[in-house]
Amino acid sequence: MKGQGLRDEMEGRYPLLHQFFACYLNQDWPIESATPEAAFDLGIAGSSLQRRCEIRRELEALLSQFEGDDPRLRKALNDGLGINVGFRKPASARAFVEEAQRRLVRSIEAPVILIAAAVILDQRGRLLLVRKRGTAAFMLPGGKIWPGEKPVDALARELREELGCGVARCRPLGRFSAPAANEPGSVVEAELFAVGPAGQVAAAAEIDEALWHHPDDAPDFALAPLARDHVLPLIRTWKRDSL
Question: pTM, whole model, 2 decimals?
Answer without folding.
Answer: 0.59
